[in-house]
């Protein structure tokens, strides 16, 4: 049983900025420990980077989302709020687009057939992948940049034919700065979602992640917490050397609120705007992390584009980094028979592509879709959606453990918890849940409260729903 009851007397008031996954997980954990959270979200919706919009009558994530078998933190949270039955598990399919040709890229045999890399390079790539999968202490890799490590230990052919274009597509101008733990983490999560050498298993909540956030918000409020959307925080109020409250945008109609502790889940560079009096050296560190924006073009098609769920683009001539055909994982019946295709990009805000509108971006992308399906015609497109998610992907360099910001800020009772602090893991809903619970427990410890119960560690699911069953 969870450790909270309805409308019990609360020991401490905690203000939380941001109703993304981390912020909602914090509120849930605070209630679980007998404290009252109040969450404030500037956007008019819940979920942050995992928020949803409607395709027909069905919610769909603005940015593609799925879960791995190892994502036990969020799976436990979903169980706690009674939506575990919504999680279904499917066999994934993975491919690579290279110089106009599609390659399957899931099994060792697929790797051996991947001719853009020389045969010796393919063998070294496979061995290096197995080596990285077996490494449990990522610190041994931290001194390397991913680009440097691949060139040195896997070779120029594997870099030129696969990892080089992938890094450039994902990180643009920052491709040669990304630390090796990022690559290690990607391989770890992929292998953890397989049974031996079998197909990768991915999870998706039928009803969308949005349903999870709505139910989580409802239960938080039912138990005495608060969740406010469309309420932007203007500044964090200080008294002497500690954070005491929040002040809101005047047009949002919310009076100042006061708290025993405050946690912000905003990107690092936002914090100096909320607290202008931060020490100069701390502000420099806050501003020392580069971020890329996720730019998503989502197509509703009247037929499939391909039979591949996750298509990596290993071709620097193609102006996007991946195609995720969501309805090759779940059934198109969820969306009235429409086939949902994400075209994904990660861009700096001064990028030419970032500034394009929906139609201009489609004009740029459409010719390259014929590489995926030579029969593709724009008449297949029934609807187009365009979403930008700023600060979606932090660029984490080598030796980042020396640079990572602590959760405790220089201001007493003010805490920072964002995607730069899930290191060595990359951003993701699972790590945001873990982060939220961890930071709330830190807040409680600093205030002299003991947390009750261990953090959940549920077993990996042992049974799966076959792809296509909804």
Characterize the overall form: globular
Tally of DSSP helical segments? 12
Q: Between the first and last Cα atoms, what is the distance in angstroms? A: 29 Å
Compute the gyration radius: what is it?
A: 22 Å
State the major sheet. 7 strands, mixed
What's the β-strand tally?
A: 20
Helix content: 25-40%
Provide structural commentary.
With 470 residues, the chain is α/β, with parallel strands linked by helices. The protein has helices spanning 21-32, 72-80, 108-112, 119-134, 146-153, 156-171, 180-192, 209-222, 271-274, 280-286, 358-372, 429-446, and strands at residues 13-17, 36-41, 52-55, 58-61, 67-68, 87-91, 94-98, 101-104, 201-205, 226-229, 233-239, 242-248, 257-258, 261-264, 291-301, 310-313, 322-325, 339-347, 381-394, 414-416. The strands form five sheets. The protein has a seven-stranded mixed sheet with strand order 8-7-16-17-18-15-19, with helices on both faces. Strands 10-2-1-14-20 form a five-stranded parallel sheet, covered by helices on one side. A three-stranded antiparallel sheet has the order 5-9-6. Helix 1 (21-32) packs parallel to helix 8, helix 1 (21-32) packs across helix 12 (429-446) and helix 5 (146-153) packs antiparallel against helix 6. The protein is globular and about 65 Å long.
